[in-house]
Amino acid sequence: MGNSKSTAGGQTTIPAKETYVWYRKFMMEYPSGLQTLHEFKTLLGLQGLNQKANQHVDQVYNTFDMNKDGFIDFVEFIAAVNLVVRGKMDQKLKWYFKLYDADGNGSIDKKELLDIFMTVQNLNGQQTLSPEEFTNLVFHNIDINHDGELTLEEFINGTEKDQDLLEIVSKSFDFSNVLKVICNGKQPDTGGGFLQTM
To answer: How many CA atoms lie within 13 A of 159 on its CB side?
Structure first.
């Protein structure tokens, strides 16, 4: 293992030395080895959000809680960091799909996409397109069978083929500010990023 990078499923993982640094930070902040939803929101300065924004942050947290026990442990945390820092685009798109699929039924409908994009705009101030314009663009460009729902395959293939759409989706879930907060133990910058205070 040492300082070399290993691969898992073709994804470059965080080197052991760097993982140790993350582990020390995580354990200093969460001595129990578990992070709660409340601690996640506190770390990122996400108090006083409206209901929809709160639901979206809950959904982000729940996608990181892979074993669904209500906590993020270190393994889940480092997997999330690894996805954000070193994940391949198709891996990130699968994760974005999970976030957009609010009801977890395996497809994204227009209402889900509209609701999530409105919430993301409230959280990060992204104003390139209105939520309605974004939703219409997505469904026009990548809903191949025009059934009003996007499957994972349609979402990944369509987004990868449309560079403008890929850029909008990627910017919507920019976690660079979140990682700065975790690394520095400071409140989020107000200049942008995915999870900024309102």
So the answer is: 22
Q: What is the pLDDT of residue 7?
A: 43
Buried b (16+ CB within 10 A) or exposed e, 118-127: bbbbbbbebe
- Distance, first Cα to last Cα, the chain: 42
E-assigned strands of 48-170? 72-73, 107-109, 149-151
CA angle 184, 186, 187 (to 5 degrees): 145
pLDDT in tens, 134-176: 899 899 999 989 999 999 999 999 999 999 888 888 777 666 5
Closest by Cα among 31, 30, 52, 50 to 40: 30
Q: Report the alpha-carbon distance of residue 109 to residue 9 in Å, rounded.
A: 30
The residue among 69 and 95 whose pLDDT is bigger is: 69
Q: Tokens standing for 128?
A: 């390139």
